[in-house]
Structure formats: C-alpha cells, structure tokens
Amino acid sequence: MNPIYFWIVCALLLCGACDDSEKKADDASTDDSSSETDTNSDSDTGVDTDTDTNPDITDAMLERSLLSVGNNYRMKALLAKAAAGEEVTLAYIGGSITQGYTATADESYVFGSAELFKQRFAPGDGSNVHVVNAGMGGTPSTLGMLRYQRDVLDQSPTPPDLVVVEFAVNDGDDPTNGEAYESLVRKILQSENHPAVILLFSVFRSHWNLEDRLAPVGEHYNLPMISIKEAVVPELDAGTFTHDEFFRDEYHPNEWGFRVMSEIIDYYFATVAEAAADNADITIPDTAAIGIQFTDIQPVVPSTPTAAGTLEIDPGSFIDVDAVLPSIEWKNEKYFTENWQKKTDDTNTPFTLTTTCKNLVVSYKKSSLNSFGTAEFYVDGTLVESVPGYTSDGWNNPWTMVLLDEDVSAEHTLQVQMAEGSETDNFTLLIFGYTP
After folding, report:
1. Cα 303–Cα 307–Cα 310 angle in degrees, nearest 5
2. Which CATH number fits domain 59-274: 3.40.50.1110, 2.60.120.230, 3.30.1050.10, 3.30.420.10?
3. How many helices (H) and strands (E) does the chain have?
4. What is the CATH code for 298-435?
5. Which of 200, 283, 384, 435 has its CB 3.0 to 4.6 Å from that of 166, i.e. a possible disulfide?
6. Dist. CA 427–CA 436, nearest whole Å
7. pTM, to two decimals
8. At what angle are helices 109-121 and 73-83 packed, to 10 degrees?
9. Within 10 Å of residue 85's Cβ, how many Cβ atoms?
10. Which of 131, 138, 160, 135 is nearest to 147 (CA)?
C-alpha cells in the first residue's frame, strides 16, 4: 500500500474512535445530569439550576410580572448616569428573600439583577455600579423604616439612585397594616437626590403575598411594580414547572427561582431602556394611599445622641449587651449588635425614654431561651403592652410593636420594666423609633 494512503486510513480510524468516545462521554454526562436533577428535586434542596435542565423563563412570565411600568423619569436618569460611567448605587431593602436566605451571595436575586444591570448599562467591568443589600430575615416594613438609615443610607458609597422595596411576604406581621410600608416608600421618594423606587412583590410556596394591600401605594405614587406571584403562579397552576423547581422551602426560592427573579427585574430595566422618557418627575401627593404618619420616624439605638429636652434615655437595669443574635450568613454579620439587655440579677430599674413625639415604635428580641422573661411597656404611666421575651418558636429574631400613634406631637415618657415573676430574667431591646 502506498504509505500516504496508509496514514490517511489510520487517521480516519482514530477520528472515528474519538467521536465514539466523546459520544459515550456525552451520554454518560447526560445520564449523570438526569440523575442529579431527580435527586435535587426534593423540596428541601430545590433543583439543579443548570440552564439545560431548568424550565424556560417565558415571555409570558416576564410580561405578566410587570404590573406597572410607572413614571420612568427617575429610572431614565439612573440609566444615563450609569452608561456615562458615573458612580451609581442600587439598594435593596426587604426580608429574607432579599437577604438571600438559603442562597450564596452570588445566587441571590439582588446580586443577579445588579449584575444584569451592569451588563446592560454600565461601561467596562461595571465597577461604577455599587450594590447595597439591606435584606434582613423575619422583618416587616415597620422595622424596615427603622433600619433604612443604618442599613441603606449609611452603607451606600453614594446616595442610592435606585431602591427596590420587597416586603410583600413579610408584612403579615406588620402592626400598621401598610402604613409603615407607605411611609418608607414616601421617605425614599422624598430624598434630596430623587432616587427611583421599584416595588417588588415576592410570593410564598402557598401562593400568598400582600400584593393587594400594597399595590395601592404604587398606584398612588405612579411607581413601577413587579410581581413574582403573577409571573410564576399561573405556570405552577398549569404544571409548566413544579413548586420544587422554583422553591427551596415553604418561603424561599431556590437558585433557579432567584434567577427567575433577577431576569424579571432585568425585563423591567430593558422595558424602561426601550421606552420614551417621561417629560416630568412624579408629583408626590399630599394625601396618603394607606398612611404616612411614620415618614419622618427617627431610629434610636444606644449610640444615638441624647440631649435634655429633646431625647433623654436612662437605661436603668438594661445595661448589658446581648451578643446572641441572628446573622446574615454570607455576610457573617449579626443583626443589632447595639442593644440594651436587662441584666440577670435582682435589680429591676425601668428603662426610661422621654421625648416629644407623635408615635413610638420598638423592636425587641424573641428568644428560645427560658432565661428570658416578660417585660411591661408603659407610656406616660399607662401599661400598653406586656410581652414575653421567651417563645418556643423564637430564633433570636426581632419583633416590632407600635406603642403610641397619635395625630399631634407631645412629650411622652416610655418605661420598660420586667413583670412580676420575671424580675431576674433577661429581656433585650433592639431599637426604638419616634416621629417628632
């Protein structure tokens, strides 16, 4: 045989062997992937989030998610600023879904939507876009309005250009029934730098959220509203994908669920980019959709400056600092490291706060330790609340109460002391708020 033909035949045989080997490897990989998907379809672990095995995110889902585009004047300003390479800050405030509970830092919808924003609008590596994640598990907007200064404004390298507000599945425990939510939204809108605001409505596995209660706020201020419920529930009802494919547990999305949320928010970004700009900014109405009496609320923590006649605090027996606090896993950061804890001894000197205000709000810790007792809250000498610091389902989580809510500001004195039988027990006060 001609030597040249011999080597050609050998090469062809080798290529055929390689092709067959690669096909077998691909088949094996496919089998492994199928096995892994089946294993991960358990409701505790969610599903494998490889794009080849996840359901499609359809145009219908994206379109349904956008309840309202709202006025785009502020968003257009943000997009232009980002595209020009100027420093911009995207801030997100909400509960554990915003925090990214059950997710790693780069799986959360906050990270995902911010990365898509950078890719779509920012030049270069997107380093001019800063992100603040102020999600905190188990907290309603009543606590969110107290956290806004510390967890959003104080953490932002530049004043936030966009704030995404996500409390639609946390406000079932909101003692103000939406008034704190609207007050927070209004406070953000009134900021000097005029940030854009997006109202984001998450959903639980049960298909529940408070969209119907909170959507009137978006309508009142002509804001964009994005509904995860409207996007995914029709698909779940139709069997397009399963609950286990979207949720990791009863409350939180899995990795693919978070990616769905990210792409839904990106759909809004793209919609604004393609639309003509509104000619004028929103006009903030004088009236309320639900209630606005907490708009100017001032947070109070142990380091808050006090002054005679303005804000006076005597901690009494609440002079210890509680270090047993919940944390944000991927940040390795605890909640409310500043606090007032009642000493475990036989003293029961009341904590006293005096100020001129229209309302008073407090958040305290719910503990699973039976060393925590019952505290009594008095406003101007009248018992307003008596609450146990110990509950069997407590996880050191904050719990928020409204102690005073009046139309006219006046001087008031709040006192907190341990109830009879709990004099030697612990109790932790996390943060107060008042509107002058």
Report:
1. 110
2. 3.40.50.1110
3. 11, 16
4. 2.60.120.260
5. 200
6. 27
7. 0.87
8. 70
9. 14
10. 135
